Amino acid sequence: MSEATIQTATPVRRGFPLSAYLVCSGGIAWREALRFIHQRERFVSALVRPLLWLFIFAAGFRQVLGVSIIPPYQTYVLYEVYIAPGLIGMILLFNGMQSSLSMVYDRETGTMKTLLVSPLPRWFLLVSKLCAGVAVGVVQVYVFLAIAWFWEVRPDWQGYLYALPAILLAGLMLGALGMLLSSLVQQLENFAGVMNFVIFPMYFASSALYPLWRVQESSPLLYRICQVNPFTHAVELVRFALYRELNLQALAIVLGCTVVFLGGAIIAYDPARGLISRKRQ
Amino acid sequence: MQDGKLNGPHPADDLPALAVERVSHSYGQRKALNDVSFTVPQGSFTALLGPNGAGKSTLFSLITRLFNVRHGAIRILGFDLSKDPGEALRRLGVVFQARTLDLDLSISQNLIYHAALHGLPASAAKTRIGEILATSELRSRLKEKARNLSGGQLRSIEIVRAFMHRPRLILLDEPTVGLDVRSRAAILSEVRRLVHEEGVSVLWATHLIDEIDAGDRVVVLHQGEVLAEGFVPDIVAAQGARSIGDAFTRLTGVRAKAAQPEGVA
User: Fold this and answer.
1) Would you call B74 helix, strand, or coil by DSSP?
2) Does A109 contact B at CB distance below 8 Å?
3) Which of A40, A135, B75, B103 is the most exposed place for a label (fewest CB within 10 A)?
4) CB distance A28–B116 less than 8 Å?
């Protein structure tokens, strides 16, 4: 047992150039892309799920569920058109949860340690991982929109461009939520339960499938729940953006939730403050 | 970031590669490390010798900043891990006890990914892979998926990965666990060769006495406490023992384990 060493010499700090951050971020995105390419079934299932809703669920409900003229729509719209933003939200929600599931998997298999011992700031590593996951989700969304075009979901071409920042932001919020959840879940088996308690309630208690005024008519309580559900606002942000309109309330809520969820995840993954260090790896 | 030189400027000679100063860590009520202090001098091969449950992996989690150092301090080449984690971690290479390669990626993809996490671009990473694997048969298998490799080969790649960003200090947490005797010997020999060629310092955690050479430094860790620190002959002499295995038994009351019956120590 040696005596504690008192450091007298001062080592020279070098810091990290911007290029190191770019290389690191690019490397994380590259790995996400490789994993995505290797898991083709993940891409297919991410598309099949919303398309089934569009082709089957919406076709069945279009005769039953009338949608009155509500903003941002200027006229009556098909039910397929109404639920398209909700299905975009569904893609982003599943993608966010899938990314966080892969973080839990990485932690179980040990590959997460490789990421966490990188010398670059941990918040930067997590944000890079989040952005890489969102980029994959955005690709899925636009492939979905391309297919949905044949089912009469046809915003004008500028709508596709206007929607991009909204889709990115919604993806960031849902990805950050997934990341926060992944920090709280220790085992893959537990994560399945969390998915059930998060994905389905978030999706169904929102404006994804039905306009909120219809929900209010049937259940004021459910209406309140829908209103405080951040997923509702992510869907509305995308819905308005597809028609080149900005829903300021939705933007503020989605931005705020993104900051809170991401901040929570960064704290949870910080060994100095987070939950990770209190558990055995 | 990388210029072909060792990572980071050469520090003053009196700075140890690793300084663990009065570190304690608990899991709830259970104390895993109790006031642990030791140093790893620059250029040394230091074995952290302790039986299973001694606290070696906890100590590694603290040195790699997976856990926060709540009591005491850890410095890598003089950089305090809590105050200057980036500067400390950039000088550190790690081989964890559990496998940490992504089995779905190829060997080269795993290595390039690791290099990127340290800010090393792919082109420089490929050059570095060529340097480290210049004489290795694994060089011809770089495009194979990691899952196709044997346990010993996976471990070899993890060791290569730890050297990728030219660290000054390498931590290896029981790197030969689960390997056959031949693979163990090959891994140990490979690490000693790389240490010699790259001039880095090593902290090698093990519970196997025959992984220690007569010229190594040893830190004996038992039940979360450092019981001895020094070169093998000094510890043997201080305990009045016949070998390092005997000294270990006298210190801990635990019979020393060896992978090979004809252990070197």
Assistant:
1) strand
2) yes
3) A40
4) yes
Domains of chain B by start residue, with CATH = 18-252 (3.40.50.300)
Q: B58-105 pLDDT, tens per residue? A: 999 999 998 889 999 999 999 999 999 999 999 999 999 888 899 889
Residues of A within 8 A of B229 (CB-CB) are 1-2
Cis, bond preceding A72 (omega within 30 deg of 0) = yes
Asked if B12 is an interface residue toward chain A (Cβ–Cβ < 8 A), one would say yes
What pLDDT digit, counting tens, does each position of A107-130 carry? 777 888 888 899 999 899 999 999
Q: In 3D, which of B128, B200, B195 has the Cα closest to residue B164?
A: B128
Q: Which of residues 102-121 of B touch A (CB under 8 A)?
A: 102-105, 109, 112-121
A 18-57 → B contacts, CB under 8 A: 19-21, 23-24, 26-28, 30-31, 34-35, 38
pLDDT one-digit tens code per residue, A59-87: 777 766 666 677 777 777 778 888 899 99
User: What is the pairing mode between strands B79-80 and B71-76?
Assistant: antiparallel
Question: Which residue in A25, A195, A35 sits closest to A127, CA to CA?
Answer: A25
Q: Residue B160 pLDDT > 80, yes or no?
A: yes
B22 touches chain A (CB under 8 A): yes
